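Work Package 3 (structural annotation) set out to generate three-dimensional models for the target panel prioritized at the project kickoff. During this period the team completed the workflow that converts sequence records into discrete structure tokens, so that structures can be stored uniformly alongside our sequence database. As a representative example, we reproduce one entry of 281 residues exactly as it appears in the project archive.
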Amino acid sequence: MDTNELLRKVRKIEIKTKGLSQNIFAGEYHSAFKGRGMTFSEVREYQYGDDVRDIDWNVTAREERELTVMLLVDVSGSKDFGAVGIAKREMMAEIGATIAFSAIQNNDKVGVIFFSDKVEKFIPPKKGRKHILLVIRELLDFQPTGTGTDINMVLEYMTGALKKRCTTFLVSDFIDEHDYSKSLSIANHKHDVIAVQVYDKREAQLPDVGLIRMRDAERGTMRWVNTGSKRVRDAYSRWWYNQQQAVNGTLQRCNVDMASVATDEDYVTALMGLFKSRGAT
């Protein structure tokens, strides 16, 4: 992607997502993620007998309204799939940008970890419009070197790298053969992890179009698949259903909230539902 095209896309997403975060998400975001057990290790807690006149009320107020938001964004090979609607990568970029703009409107820090089967890039959390635009540019144009997916690895990395509690959005299609339940449970205990699944409906069901050659985007292998066979289509549907049930089960056991959105659907509705459900708890 050349510089001019990239800048046009950045500007387009900035206009769209900034309007959404200001007009739609601001109140819901604030109620959903503020005051959820933030810790400030450098600030001494109030002790019995302390003079109330010595309390730094500015710090107290800052504790209540500032968050550190981390985006864990899947950049594996499968995210380029986009048979129905836009490509998963494009939707992930818009979702990440919307969350980032929502955070910046609330004076929060935002950081990103791009991952495949390894940590591709870590952008430490910062504030400010310049930083947000850097994040969006990377969301749009980042080129990974790995093709697989390892959620377990990125959760372990984040848990070790970030000492202070943060609100973490794990944005992925969750097509991952690894067991990440333990690392997710640990990460969600230390931080506040929210899952955002982006999927393509064509991934859930094979069309009946005869013999086609398909490429595994994460392994890079090619194979012929007879989609005209009902047995093959049913087997694929069962695989998708079982995979999705496994994802849902893992998230529920780890007490992690999730929004799931297809590439041809409106992600605004999914995020609003997530924000509202968390704000009500």
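The beta strands are 68-74, 109-115, 119-126, 167-172, 192-199, 211-215, 222-226, 257-262.
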